[in-house]
Amino acid sequence: MTTTAADTRAPSPAPSNGPDRPRPPRRRTRAADRGFNRAFRYLATSAGTLILIALAAVAGFLLWQSWPALTSSGSEIASKVSFFQGQSSLASYLGPLIFGTLLAAAVALAVATPLAIGIALFTSHYAPRRLASLLGWVIDLLAAIPSVVYGLWGALVLAPTIQPVWQWVSNVLGWIPLFKGPAADPARVLLTVSLVLAVMILPIITAVSREVFLQTPKLHEEAALALGATRWEMIRTAVLPFGRSGVVSAAMLGLGRALGETMAVVMILSPGLTYSFALLLAGKQQTIAANIALKYPEANSLGMSTLMATGLALFVITMVVNMASRWVVGRRKEFSGAN
User: Fold this and answer.
1) Which CDD domains match (predicted)?
2) CA end-to-end distance (rounded Å), the chain
């Protein structure tokens, strides 16, 4: 029997991964990945649920503690609570506090946000790397200063120093209700408090805005520059539109800090319970957090319940602000950079 070339051909070797490349245990790896994914999912879900439980517990505690004041008449509260004198109802006591809190936070936000955006743009697109790092470190350091230090600085240094400036503003712009004068001496007024609050929230807005601006797609920046845009035009057409939602989120974080600030307001502001837009007059406004800190030592059981009712109002205001910021950010979600 003759053999052909096909018969003498050596059998082809079986496919292998080579002597140094053993086949990985795919089933075991996939099973381990599924286990890790499942554990991480459960951990993340538990963390989110814990936050919701804590938030509900805080709301329930405030509602439970404030319920006696919410169900009592104004005359009953006035007869038992010393600091409630002259108020006809809980709403009449709470209204000026809400007004003062929102006014102080809004003025602080109006002062801090443009300055923070400018610093963030300078450190992200203009300054040399070393200078940007140094300036970012200094701005971040402001967030580590305790609020009581800001309060001491505002009461002992800023208020006496800035009083001539406020007096000049009152003389020049006194026809505007916000700057109605004459300015108080020393300047323990809401505008001084708002200036201190602006310094306190400046690091938060600056840090978040800087990181958002640095995430701008290079494709957008290079395209704007390739079309002949200057650096400012590139920032105005590419960087700012991309970071708008991030800046809004940063501003809302700063607003939350300004709404709940206590010690700095207590140490600087001369309090009052009126609906007044006059930022340079003393004894006109007060914030909820500062009022709680001042009235807590003299409060009896019903007075404590009244203060808890004001705290509940602050809690609701903070939740509304956060929900509004999430809605604004969600509307800008379709702008996804270079995608």
Assistant:
1) TM_PBP2
2) 71
CB atoms within 10 A of CB 173: 13
186 upstream amide cis, omega within 30 of 0:
yes
- Residue 315 CA to chain centroid, in angstroms? 14
Question: pLDDT by residue (tens digit) across 55-92?
Answer: 899 999 999 999 988 888 888 888 888 888 777 888 88
Q: What angle do CA 94, 305, 63 make, to 5 degrees?
A: 85
Q: Measure the CA–CA gap between 282 and 188, rounded to whole angstroms.
A: 6
CA distance 10 to 8: 6
Count of CB atoms situated within 10 Å of the CB of 159: 25
Q: Does 1.10.3720.10 match the CATH number of domain 58-331?
A: yes
Residue 14 CB neighbour total at 10 angstroms: 5
If you write DSSP's letter for every residue of 53-89 in order, what string do you get? HHHHHHHHHHHHHHHHHHTS-HHHHHHH-GGGTT-SS
Per-residue DSSP letters for 299-320?
--HHHHHHHHHHHHHHHHHHHH
Map out the domains of the chain as residue ranges. 58-331
**Rounded CA separation 121/80 (Å):** 55
Distance CA 253, CA 120 (A): 16
pLDDT at 145: 87
Inter-axis angle of helices 240-260 and 190-214, nearest 10: 140
- Single out the residue of 55, 118, 88, 104 nearest to residue 268, CA to CA: 104
Tell me the two tokens of residue 313.
Answer: 């109002």
Q: Which two tokens stand for residue 22?
A: 């053993």
Residue 27 tokens, joined: 């089933």
